[in-house]
Structure formats: structure tokens, C-alpha cells
Specification:
By secondary structure, the protein is of the alpha/beta class. It is 40% helix and 16% strand. It contains 14 helices and ten strands. The strands form two sheets. It has a five-stranded mixed sheet, sandwiched between helices. The protein has a five-stranded mixed sheet with strand order 7-6-8-5-9.
Length: 337
């Protein structure tokens, strides 16, 4: 990750965009930057409810980094995790937090979206089981019942995991449990779950003292990918990138601050969320902050085009998308600090 002063310089330079006279965002206008005393509205659609994955966002809000960059950021919690990327494509949101697979699916459907930065540059989705299931490795899935969240590519994750372990698809009983991953695992209705995050569901189980076995999918044969990314309209990236560049610079500052001040980061998440358990949230934030740090020596938010290409090829091979797109069409690192 780059040093703080460099990011502040990038954010300050981006304010030059004011002189371009761009219209304020909202109502389909392109986003622009304002000033610290007169910040411009900027809508951010979250991927789901407020959680520790958003520690950098809420730390940046809490510390005023977005306003110092000339942006009045308004996070929105969606009722459906698939909605944010559609809102961006339609011009009703300036940025969205989404997932690499969703970006590839959206582009395959012709939506005008592009990933502009990674928030978490590695898979959080994991195969999670409890000791009583006796699943010491992927080969231990033979004859077991696995709960997934009903997301199509999770079934393909499971298929790949089984193939890597030398097992046929018929070796396990897959059950779509929707959002009830933890209840079904805790209730003994499934032997393992695939779709929970290691830093959320995994930490929940650890906090209960249940000693879960947690293995991210890229350690089981699935190509690595960026779990959480920032998504913008491709046309906005091409024509009016200033506000997005300022947002990412301020988010980089917020993430740096969160990593250095984990207690304050947890408090920022707790203040923004509703009904979050303080002890569990603090444990989840502690587990999440190292995952937000990115790769040493690369700019904050860096996305690896080669890894995106390999993952896209995997999606195409599994008929999740019609063909693997050019990586330059689905991501850009040009707006990073």
C-alpha cells in the first residue's frame, strides 16, 4: 500500500476537477468533486448490511476523509445483494461495492460496469465445517451434505473442489439453504457450508468456541479472485473519473487509519450498523483488517489482470458466462492512488 502523504496528494490533485465545471452527481448526472467546505453528493451502494468488510469506508466517513476530498459520501444498504451493480449501470449510484464474479456476470449481460479497485483482493468465501462432521480435507466431503447460499457459481465452486479432490459431483448432497448458512450448520442439518465468509461466519463460530475448520475456496482448487471490489459505470470512468479517483484515495486513507486503529474502526462499524453484537463485531473487525491491507508494494485497491483472466476463463468453462472478456474491459487500475 502506498504511503499516506502520496494518497493525500492524489486526493488534493483530483480537486482540480472542480474547474471543469462538472455537474454534481444524482439524477443521472456524472459525479464531480467539490471542496471540503462544500462537498458534492456521492452515492455508494453497499453490497449488503453494514459489516466489518466496510471498516475502511466507515473509518473514512468517521474521520472526514471523504469530505476533505470534496465528497459527501452517502452509503446505501441494499435489500438485495444483486441490486447495487444494476444501480450503478443505470446511473442511479456513483459507486457500488460488489464482487468480482458479479462484475463478470454483469458484463456478460451487457451492463456498462467496470471494477475500479479491490477492497478485499482475495476470496473470503470458504468451506466451513465443525469437528463433529469429520471433514479433515476436501476428500472428507464424500457422502456429506453441503449447504450453499443458492448463488449459481457456488455450485460450480463445489464441483471444482470435488474434482480437485478426485471425487465425482455425486459424492455430496448439495442443499440450497439461502441465507441460513449458520443456522443449518449449527442445527446439524448440513455437515458443511460453502458461501460463508471466513471473517464473518467463520469468526462467529470461533467466538462460540466451536473450533470450525475454515478453508477459503482458492485453497481448494477454485482460481483466486477479488472478493470485494468497487464498481463504476465504464462511461463515467472514461469521461469523468475525478470523483472516483478522489473516493478511492480517501478510502485508502480510511483503510490505513482503520488498520492502525482497530478499536476505532470497530466503533465506526458499530455506530453505522444496526443490531450488531459489539464483542462479535470487534472480533470480526480484527480478523478483517489484515485482509483490507492489500498487497505490499502495490497501490491500494490493485487488481491483478492475470488473475481476473484466469478466473474469467474458469467461469466460461463452467458456462457461467458466454466467454472470457478482455480484462481491460472489466477492470482498470488507472484510478488508484
Amino acid at each position: 500500500m502506498t504511503a499516506g502523504p502520496t494518497r493525500w496528494l492524489a486526493a488534493a490533485l483530483s480537486l482540480v476537477a472542480i474547474s471543469l465545471g462538472l455537474a454534481a452527481c444524482g439524477g443521472g448526472d456524472e459525479p464531480s468533486t467539490g471542496s471540503a467546505t462544500d462537498p458534492q453528493p456521492f452515492t455508494l451502494d453497499l453490497d449488503w448490511y453494514v459489516n466489518p468488510d466496510h471498516a475502511g469506508i466507515y473509518s473514512a466517513l468517521d474521520r472526514g476523509f471523504f469530505k476533505q476530498a470534496g465528497l459527501d459520501v452517502q452509503p446505501e444498504v441494499p435489500s438485495d445483494p444483486s441490486a447495487p451493480i444494476k444501480e450503478v449501470a443505470a446511473g442511479r449510484a456513483d459507486l457500488a461495492v460488489s464482487y468480482e464474479p458479479e462484475v463478470l456476470l454483469a458484463r456478460d449481460k451487457g451492463l456498462d460496469v467496470q471494477a475500479v479497485g479491490a477492497i478485499v483482493d482475495q476470496p473470503l468465501t470458504s468451506l466451513i465445517s465443525l469437528p463433529k462432521a469429520g471433514i479433515a480435507g476436501a476428500a472428507g466431503l464424500q457422502g456429506k451434505t453441503v449447504g450453499t447460499a443458492g448463488i449459481p457459481y457456488q455450485s460450480d465452486y463445489l464441483e471444482t473442489i470435488l474434482q480437485t479432490a478426485g471425487l465425482p459431483s455425486s459424492a455430496v448432497n448439495e442443499v440450497n439453504v439461502g441465507l441460513n448458512l449458520l443456522p443449518t450448520l449449527l442445527g446439524g442439518r448440513v455437515d458443511a457450508i460453502l458461501g460463508g465468509f471466513r471473517n464473518i461466519e467463520g469468526v462467529d463460530l470461533q467466538q462460540r468456541g466451536l473450533n470450525p475448520r475454515i478453508v477459503p475456496v482458492d485453497q481448494l482448487g477454485v482460481p483466486t479472485y477479488d472478493e470485494l471490489v468497487l464498481v463504476a459505470r465504464s462511461s463515467t470512468v472514461a469521461d469523468h473519473p475525478e470523483a472516483i479517483r478522489s473516493f478511492i484515495s480517501a478510502l485508502a486513507e480510511g483503510t490505513d487509519y482503520a488498520i492502525s486503529h482497530p478499536q476505532e474502526a470497530a466503533n465506526a462499524v458499530l455506530m453505522a450498523g444496526k443490531g450488531l453484537d459489539p464483542m462479535q463485531t470487534r472480533a470480526e473487525v480484527d480478523a478483517t483488517l489484515p485482509l483490507l491491507a492489500g498487497i505490499h508494494g502495490r497501490p491500494y485497491g490493485h487488481m491483478d489482470p492475470a488473475e481476473w483472466g484466469e478466473y474469467a476463463e474458469w467461469m466460461a468453462q463452467h458456462d457461467l458466462i458466454s466467454s472470457a472478456p478482455r480484462t481491460s474491459d472489466v477492470l482498470t487500475n488507472e484510478l488508484l492512488p
